[in-house]
Give the backbone structure.
Amino acid sequence: MTGAQVDLQDCTERLLQSDAFRNAPASRRLLRYLADQTLAGHADQLKEYTIGVDAFGKGEDYDPRKDSTVRIQIGRLRQKLIEYYGGEGKNDGWVLELPKGRMRLHLVAGVDAMAPAELADAEMTPRWKTWPALAALMLVAGLGLLAWDDLRLRRAGLPSSKQSWSSDLEELWQPFLSSGKQLVVSVGDPLFVQFEDKTLFRDPAIDKWEDLRQAVRVTAKPGESRPVHYYAAIGEVHAAFLLGQRLAPRQPSISIVQASQLLWQQMAASNVLLLGPPRIFVDRIGSLPVSLEIIESPEGFRVVHPNAGQESLYPYRNSAGFFSDDGAAAVLVTHAPGPAGNTDMQSFASNSTFGRLGAIDAFTDAGFARTLVAKMRGSNGVIPKYYQVLLQVRYKGGVPTETSYVLHRELKRRE
């Protein structure tokens, strides 16, 4: 047995004994089967029918066109791998992947075994291929929205979004533009359940498959189901386009990845921008080597040490009603070191997609950057290296109309 085969076998055993897989018998069975076939050199010849018969005990009359068991279980296995490497396995030296469209398990070296530049190339290049529809949607919708936005601004007598860069913007974005590392934009992709009849179900308060599957059981929806991460909010589409348009002239190496596909190894090798609801990134942000001063709570963003005259809790949003596109939202911007301390991460978290869009627009706007930098600048004449900024974004008809500074806190790195 070669060294690579020993490593794959060891990784498989570690996964099978993990909390993520312990109570998932179907995923355990499929992982064991694919590992055995990969080690034997037969995985590239595997078909859905073969897996159904050999791994799941289907009869000879099994028809994959009518029975989606194998496809569903493969999706669940990929979700389990993401869950494991995003939690208890985040420091593993090797990462076991199941690339889409293939049945052969693939072993990828962790950050301790591969140089950051090599890891970025290995991980980020294929990630674009896993999201072609949304990438195209971002480009088309972003172009249309941006053109409309520029027209609206010109009619109002305001500067176009195609503005010049400024020294204040340079100060805000310098860690992401001059480090030589790739910049990854990670966009929140909420978890849905898809059923055999193609209908979808989502609970906005749930982002873990096991919890959502239990919620589906309560609704008594019949038939097989599987987790999918196909969709992103319109605010993220526009925000991602704005980031590309405004940062690309100074950072040519920008790529995009779904939040559900973002690995700890990527966060340790690249600079990352996170766009989405707080709950999608809370585990990742909470595990970074800083002590947070503003945290997520069920009611809103809570300030751990409020100053005199400051509120301790800022509700996520205020609107005229649940279905209203008019209102105001709190947005928390967190700039922190990556998990290995040698990269930078910045999240734009809000329960409103319009709030997230407004925050991105403000953070890349010369006028707002001038105001923000002035408020954050310390006695030494520079802004903190790591920080949290709380903003309020007002929107009308789903369009951000005003973004205002609320407060900020410097973050101290834990040694």
